[in-house]
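User: For my dataset I need records formatted as: sequence, then structure tokens, nothing else. Please produce one.
Assistant:
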Amino acid sequence: MTGGEGDPRVTELRLAVTRLRRELAALRTDFPDRAIAEDELAALAAMTCDGFPEIPRLRGSLLLLAGAIGSMSALSGALRDVRAAVDLFGEPARRGQGALPRPDRPSDANSPRP
């Protein structure tokens, strides 16, 4: 699969990351994990310039971002946009299994058995 400049998913991710970086920079409140958030946003921005991003790395960065700034309500909209952009790349598959279940969708493994 190809990606990069012509891939609308990469463009969407780049725009979402840029927005979150801009809003984080404008936020004058200091918080303990700000450096982590800034580093992960820089890594995500670099991934959008290097062609097709690696899905597991995108997911890892998203988790770190959510942990670092998830409680900052001023950034929740921009963080939601980054998550939506990462989700455009699809679900990563676990070794030897299908895709990971999404927390907002029921999975067979978590469904009650009759």
